[in-house]
Amino acid sequence: MQSFNLDQSGSALLTAVDRIAADTIQKHARDNDVEARFPRENIEALRAAGLLGLISAREVGGHGQGLRAAAAVCERIARECPSTAMVMKMHYCGSAVIEAHGDPDLRRAIAAGKHLTTLAFSEFGSRSHFWVPVSTATPAPNDTILLNANKQLITSAGECDLYIWSSKPAAAEGLSSLWWVPSRAPGLTLGDRYQGLGLRANASAPIGAVDVEIPAANRLGADGKGFDLMMGVVLPWFSVQNHAVSTGMMEGVLRRTVAHVTGQGYDYSGAKIAEFPQVRGNVARMRTKIDMSRALLIDAIDAIERGRDDAQLRVLQSKVTGAETSLEVHDLAMRVCGGAAYRKDIAVERFFRDSRAASVMAPVSDALWDFIGKAECGMPLFA
Ligand SMILES: Cc1cc2nc3c(=O)[nH]c(=O)nc-3n(C[C@H](O)[C@H](O)[C@H](O)COP(=O)(O)OP(=O)(O)OC[C@H]3O[C@@H](n4cnc5c(N)ncnc54)[C@H](O)[C@@H]3O)c2cc1C
């Protein structure tokens, strides 16, 4: 299996994640899914091991790791609990924006693990087209801003400490501005949590904002330049980590599938399920699809780190490759594990349900195929 090739400090951190995944995350995954319960104990274990400050620079007290390590961490967690991996993925996306534009105090707090973050981009008014928010930011007295919004489907809603928040610009031209917003700010309201099909433990919920007052200084980047931040910082982090979560899920479902088909069989003959060549062929397809997807994931990270000419293409391909391959691999797992896959005990159905989300999380797969096609045909992506 192709490895993420982390440096010494990254490898030590990944070893810590491996231990937490095996001891804690794996243990709680089933109940958190059934009860749609936020994986608080998992996040606290990761926080205690310093993982919330993974990508914060060393100068502010973080571990100074990058996208490669974040992808490795999310991939490992997703093998046990994709919901927990999604929470961490969104935290690292938010942290990347704060590292790029946050003030030193905020960066130090993130590095110290004091804040869990998430992206609050998606809105009822612009749905998956997060780059055109319809929510507003209105300049108010004393250098403050009033936010009004109807956000939909926000991971870690009400469970995290701060949101990276999109709105129309306050005064400048442009599609959007970004802000950081404390999750307990007066005027924020939480809608009912979705009883979702999958990723049920990630506390996805709508968030309303009515005249939420924040300091104007909470803006991240220039007014009106949110789009540049979304495309330049958020998209690579989101796309690659989403791919990593899909990869971890696929590894998780393959492990459980192999355990089932090699462990269970037919009493009348003593044969195991894996003795059917068709079953082994489908297991082989799963392994091969995962490895093809993983190879593109590692190449995308490499392209971004080296600033290669094809980095933008790899960013667009990354999420959609992971998401769509994951749908195929999870379909195969359901077929190979038969009626047993419909039960909760071997956990294949949990992974199957969780795997459905990636292709409809923005940018949705259909939009990504269109963007890649436009790029290939030399057409502007957002025209
Ligand atoms: C589990 C989960 C967690 C989430 N967490 C967050 C979060 O933390 N923060 C956040 O901001 N958002 C989050 N979201 C929201 C997510 O990013 C999307 O905005 C949302 O899922 C889009 O759903 P929709 O029904 O609004 O999509 P629509 O915009 O209604 O799209 C529906 C379908 O229309 C088609 N379509 C739409 N646009 C295009 C296009 N440009 N080209 C081609 N086809 C298109 C596609 O087939 C698409 O699947 C989460 C979603 C889920 C499911």
TL;DR?
The protein is of the alpha+beta class and 383 residues long. The protein is built from ten helices and eight strands.
Task: Give the tags.
383 residues; alpha+beta; Butyryl-Coa Dehydrogenase, subunit A, domain 1; Butyryl-CoA Dehydrogenase, subunit A, domain 2; Butyryl-CoA Dehydrogenase, subunit A, domain 3; 3 domains; 4-stranded mixed sheet; globular; binds flavin-adenine dinucleotide
Can you put this structure into words, describing what you see?
This protein is of the alpha+beta class and 383 residues long. It folds into three domains: 8-115, Acyl-CoA dehydrogenase/oxidase, N-terminal domain (Butyryl-Coa Dehydrogenase, subunit A, domain 1); 119-224, Butyryl-CoA Dehydrogenase, subunit A, domain 2 (Beta Barrel); 227-376, Butyryl-CoA Dehydrogenase, subunit A, domain 3 (Up-down Bundle). The chain contains ten helices and eight strands. It has helices at 8-35, 40-48, 67-78, 82-101, 104-111, 226-263, 277-306, 311-337, 348-355, 365-376; strands spanning 117-120, 136-140, 144-154, 162-167, 177-182, 188-190, 205-215, 219-220. The strands form two sheets. A four-stranded mixed sheet has the order 1-4-5-8, with helices on one face. A four-stranded antiparallel sheet has the order 2-3-7-6, with no helix packed on it. Helix 3 (67-78) runs parallel beside helix 6 (226-263), helix 6 runs antiparallel to helix 7 and helix 7 (277-306) packs antiparallel against helix 8 (311-337). The longest helix is centred in the middle third of the chain and has 38 residues, at 226-263. The radius of gyration is 21 Å and the shape is globular. Flavin-adenine dinucleotide binds next to strand 1, strand 3 and helix 10.
